[in-house]
Design a protein that fits this description.
Elements lengths: L20 E3 L2 E3 L4 E10 L5 E10 L6 E6 L6 H12 L9 E5 L4 H5 L23 H13 L5 E8 L3 E9 L4 H10 L3 E4 L7 H7 L3 E9 L5 H17 L17 E10 L4 E5 L6 E2 L4 E6 L6 E5 L4 E7 L3 E2 L4 E8 L1
Parallel strand pairs: 5-6, 5-7, 7-10, 8-9, 9-11
Antiparallel strand pairs: 1-2, 3-4, 4-6, 8-10, 8-16, 11-18, 12-14, 12-17, 13-16, 14-15, 16-18
């Protein structure tokens, strides 16, 4: 049974006496729309790095929901989802407040890299410190200035380099209310995944902020199917809280959500060229040929087969692999 949360469940936004909300020293009043910026550092040219934040408030009270992406600078598909939310005016709520941050890690996006220039992963630097590394200072600003003001966050990510993730919502198995929200979002997969130390998700959880982690696609790639799944899931969440404008339709998905309790990596024992015969999200059976690893000289070929009946949650799209490389993330279904 889905538990329907009401506006009374949401009370985190810092309000002024006249019902304005305060975010980075800016006050946004009911019915207002603002694009804010917060500075996180400088380029080596001393040009300031300013991260845009889009805030849209209804005149009617309600929850505050944030959609964010670009925690890693190479995860473009998530950025595309939040961009579409803004461009299609989905972020204009019937009630409550919607905050959109298309690119959290703007410096890495500038540098066309996953991590910050010092090699640190922003999503392992939370809750951060105002006297630490660049990653730590940025994480600290997000933790102190943004997280306390939000009721629900949907943070969009993709798979790593050339590793394509099936569209999924990841939730801590102990958090029933997040599982229920994941079912409302209704991605093709809901994957049980414990929080990892130093992540944005863990810090939100420790601060009592609900967060859904969306994974879909791969780095440096925009996949229209992944983008559409993300947008439709957002609309279902907003409709659940009566925040979605009537002009936005929420058609029923063409797939059934699958709940995945555990996943494991299938690794290749061989190095060479790599060719797959299956697609991410496929259900495969034990013994089914998934891929072939072969030398570039036409002398040797080695098949990679499924070890059990499973769904393919991630597929390696690299054309070459080394012995020990993870090539398929496979599931056990509940």
């Amino acid at each position: 049974m889905i538990v329907s949360l009401t506006p009374q469940d949401f009370s985190k936004m810092e309000y002024t006496d006249n019902n304005g909300i305060k975010l980075f020293s800016n006050i946004i009043y009911p019915g207002e729309e603002k694009m804010l910026e917060f500075t996180v550092g400088q380029l080596h040219t001393m040009t300031p790095i300013k991260i845009p934040i889009y805030v849209n408030r209804s005149k009617n009270p309600g929850p505050t929901i944030m959609f964010s992406a670009g925690m890693h600078g190479d995860e473009i598909n998530g950025i595309d989802i939040v961009r579409e939310i803004i461009s299609k005016n989905i972020n204009k709520p019937k009630c409550g407040t919607i905050i959109c941050i298309p690119i959290f890690n703007l410096l890495s996006f500038y540098n066309q890299a996953r991590d910050l220039p010092d090699g640190r992963d922003l999503n392992r630097a939370f809750p951060g410190s105002n006297a630490g590394s660049l990653a730590s200072m940025l994480a600290n600003k997000i933790t102190k200035e943004i997280i306390p003001n939000i009721d629900l966050i949907i943070d969009f990510h993709t798979g790593g380099d050339k590793r394509f993730n099936a569209a999924q919502i990841r939730v801590d198995p102990k958090r029933i209310e997040l599982f229920e929200l994941a079912q409302i979002f209704n991605a093709p997969f809901t994957v049980y995944s414990k929080n990892i130390d130093g992540t944005f998700r863990e810090t939100c959880d420790k601060n009592g902020v609900k967060i859904l982690l969306f994974e879909g696609g791969m780095s440096w790639d925009i996949n229209d199917e992944i983008t559409n799944i993300g947008i439709e899931g957002v609309k279902r969440i907003l409709k659940h809280y009566n925040m979605l404008q009537e002009k936005h339709q929420t058609p029923n998905p063409t797939y059934t959500n699958k709940v995945i309790e555990k996943t494991s990596w299938l690794r290749t024992k061989y190095s060479g060229l790599f060719k797959t015969y299956v697609n991410v999200g496929d259900y495969v059976t034990k013994g089914q040929k998934l891929a072939t690893c072969y030398d570039p000289y036409g002398q040797k070929e080695f098949d990679i087969v499924a070890q059990n009946n499973c769904y393919l949650i991630n597929v390696n799209k690299n054309a070459t692999v080394y012995s020990g490389d993870a090539v398929f993330n496979v599931s056990k279904i509940k």
